[in-house]
Protein 1
Amino acid sequence: MSEKDNFFNKYILNSKSSSYRNMINLCDKVAKSNANVMLIGESGSGKDVTARYIHYKSRRSDMPMVTLNCSSFSDSLLESELFGHVKGAFTGAIDDKKGKIETSRGGTLFLDEIGELSLKTQVKLLRTIENKKVAKVGSNEEREIDFRLITATNVDINEAVCSNKIREDFAYRISTIVIRVPSLKERMEDFDDLLDFMLKKSQKENNIEIKRIEPKVKSFLYSYDYPGNLRELKNIIDRMVVLSEKGVITKQGLPIVHSLGQNYKCDDSKIYPLREYREIKESEYIKKILEKYDYNVPKSSQVLEISDRQLFNLIKKYDLK
Ligand SMILES: Nc1ncnc2c1ncn2[C@@H]1O[C@H](COP(=O)(O)OP(=O)(O)O)[C@@H](O)[C@H]1O
Ligand SMILES: [Mg+2]
């Protein structure tokens, strides 16, 4: 399978969520052009994946896509990563080096965390974009260059301009088209598909077969708010699969900080199996009674008209300690 086919099988791109579908439509439209694209969105929402999607949908799809994360290098190293350098340009430049811009010739250059680019390098990159010419560090020889630029950031670009971290002319130039990648919370219509998809993938990768997910784990997964978006969901699923017992996913695998007791609540817009709904409501109510009686078990069990032992078991079941 080609890398491209592999990409389209590796991620869910046909979405049930209108916000995600609108974004994909916009990507399809701009992919055909040569416009510079800026992707904004929370960490883990899929900006890298979206950049690659645009590349594969563009006329440049058979040419390279080169990715560089601007936060991974010191300023001078970043400049040389981008533009390359000639032998002797600075101490340690023992050979000529090709930069990422040249490597992306004819294709796409994806610069992640663009807000980390120094002002000096912004000027240099702006010149390259405007003149379509690139020169290695330490050389005056300019070569013609053609590439599509995609940038990504999870910082507010207007704010970065106001605080002089990003030059206005540069910001203006690289944001011809701004595409916002929705957070996972904004596309919960896709949650079941994503869960299914990631679960299958994780079972395969870990060579573990999952038969069942405990209902309370499922309710947690639906109600949790995923600050780390799809990346966090993938991590949670991987952990749950690895920590599953005899093919059953238990709350073992859930992140401890997200104790079930606190997140265990119903989302009113969702449909639940009746048993699951009863369990959720039951746990909420028991929690309320326990709080009312200061976690005094005999008093609480008395008003609930169950035995102390039954109440203990429910406390254990719903993690209400
Ligand atoms: N459309 C998708 N379908 C399935 N998984 C996805 C999708 N988009 C992102 N992911 C998962 O989320 C992770 C983070 O995506 P990434 O594009 O790196 O996010 P960002 O660059 O916004 O931080 C990916 O490694 C992948 O596991
Ligand atoms: Mg990223």
Note: The longest strand covers residues 148-153.
Protein 2
Amino acid sequence: MMSASIDLKKIPPKILAKTERFEVSEFLGKGKSGYSFLILFGSGEFVLKVMHNEPNPYYNFSGNKVEYEVRSHNVLEEIGIKVPVLLESSIEENYLIKEYIPGLTGPEVISNGEVTDDIIKSLIFYSMNAKTKGFNLDYFPANFLITSRELYYIDYEINPYSEEWNLENWGIWYWANQQGFTEYLKTGDPKLINEDINKGIPVKRGFEDIVKNWLQYF
Ligand SMILES: Nc1ncnc2c1ncn2[C@@H]1O[C@H](COP(=O)(O)OP(=O)(O)O)[C@@H](O)[C@H]1O
Ligand SMILES: [Mg+2]
């Protein structure tokens, strides 16, 4: 059983054939690697992520995405970053299944004006752990889910550390842009949150004081 809003073409036939195992109930979102769906199995809720190979201006990737995310998941767990539990993966069928995290996405929290000091402190803590191991997370807010208790990094992605794409020079600036994310959630237009849409560089002007204040938690 599927709800009408789901584009079935995005789900590989082999997974569709297995839907007696689970019910695909909602399309959650699409990023640079895959389509994520909320699925119901028994009384539980899970996320099915089906990888795609669509080109992305900010990302060049040539390996196998499932393999890469499974490996990244293991590293993230090892270095103390809160990620959803990985339940199943299939390289042949190009998907993984993970724990569903109920809560608000980063963009929703930013738009609501609910970015608390605790969220920023968790981001900084995660970034310091990752940096120690030579990595950056993808600090773009859509990769985070905020529950009543914790900040989750829901995408299994790590990148080699660089100053340019670290938290303080790049990602944290998105978290300050309430107005931009309110509009971005409505239209999805990247110009609302980026000063350079070709490279994916966030708008910084006007947010210097907020960010400077947050960076004191480092
Ligand atoms: N485990 C999860 N729990 C809740 N929502 C999720 C989960 N995984 C993904 N999502 C939703 O799906 C969106 C895209 O997922 P993500 O893994 O970041 O894909 P991509 O790698 O393509 O960027 C997220 O922004 C989030 O809204
Ligand atoms: Mg993502």
Note: The longest helix spans residues 117-132.
Protein 3
Amino acid sequence: MLRVARKKDFCNVLGPGTRSVIWFHGCTRQCPGCIAGTMNEITEYETFHPEQLANWVKCHNTIEGITLSGGEPFQQPLNELTTFLMLVKQNTNLSVLCYTGYCYEELNKKESAIPVLQFIDVLIDGEYRQNEDFGQRWRGSENQQFHFLTKQYKNQKNEWNTAVERQIEIELDINGNLLISGVPSKDFINKLTTELQKREVNVDFS
Ligand code: SF4
């Protein structure tokens, strides 16, 4: 079963166009300054069969694609992740972006990860490094690279590599929790968390 910490039907700040986003639960890498927040802690999560998750994606017929984030997508059962992405690609025309803390070269040598890679259009790899956080669009830090694994978006490579207009989306759920999507800077997270905790508001960064 795939472990999902959170999913969002429509998001405009994690890749081109409007996208459905899945934040997978759990990451054991413990990179210093990680901004994935609660996705890495032992918190509640939902489990899905690949078919269930693919059906959820299929319901969103106005989106441009899906984005996988975390946590760490490549610490999910990789055979199930492959099945999920295969179903998405078979049944839709959606593009697939995927964030990972692993390096592409590392994944490309791992037998179980290679089938997953074949269904990803753009892989954004590498750990978050606070001292290389210069506000890059769709990336947390300069070391994280876009790998255009298919033709899709390849002609936009220069623009993607140089864009710096970082945006976030903020929502308040019915329980009073603040949900933040996008790639906020660590400074922004610290300041916002301090202010909101004074007001007893829980914040969920993803
Ligand atoms: S930066 Fe990415 S790989 Fe590193 S701990 Fe956070 S979620 Fe895991």
Note: Residues 78-91 form the longest helix (14 residues).
